[in-house]
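Example record used in the benchmark description.
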Amino acid sequence: MSQLPVPDRDTVHVWVGRGAGGRPGRAGRLLRRAGATLLGRAEAEIVVGRAPDGRPLVSAGGPDGTAVALPVSVSRADAVVLVAARRAGPVGIDVERRRELPALALARRWYAPGELAWLAARPAPERAVDFLRLWTAKEAVGKALGVGLRGGGLRRPVPVPDGDDLLRPLPGRADLRVGHPAVDRDLVVAVAVAGPSGAGGAVEVLVVDADVGLVQRTGHGVAAERSASGERTSLPVVVRGS
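Model output (structure tokens):
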């Protein structure tokens, strides 16, 4: 399978789907929608499968008869499913629902000393969410690398969150970026990319609510905006990487 060429703007598209009645949302329909949108084909022409290691695969036939692959990643939290896709190269996404947990005790077990020290210095009411921000960042980076958390992935250093949505380089790894786009106030979401990024290292994240047409735009000093749409279109949340 060939990889699509890197466009002028490096963009990660994130589709958010929600199940009904507590049932999980279906990733397949979002993967087909991602393929149709970014490969320029009808959804019926998109092939969705799994690699031997379980990773999702999305492809379509190219003009010369070869298959064109779209890098994708999937994550779930209860009835919510998120699909990330990126034409420019590997992508990873991870989601956790916000909840109370023994953040410091877990960090002592799983995180590097510097991350534990940072978490311990955070205000107590924010530690659980900050623990999940670090965790999802590590998961997303592992998915972008295609290795998950194997080989000490929880000890892989990630940039500590600093309150914005930007995708930032990992310490000592300019080829890896991760950040936390705003998706839902009840969710902690991390998106990571691997390989060369766009001009100046900028990565844009577009978040699309696949079910309700809700529009929210944030990033680079733009106040959060919300509006409802009667159609289910790709109206995005925009987050630009540093």
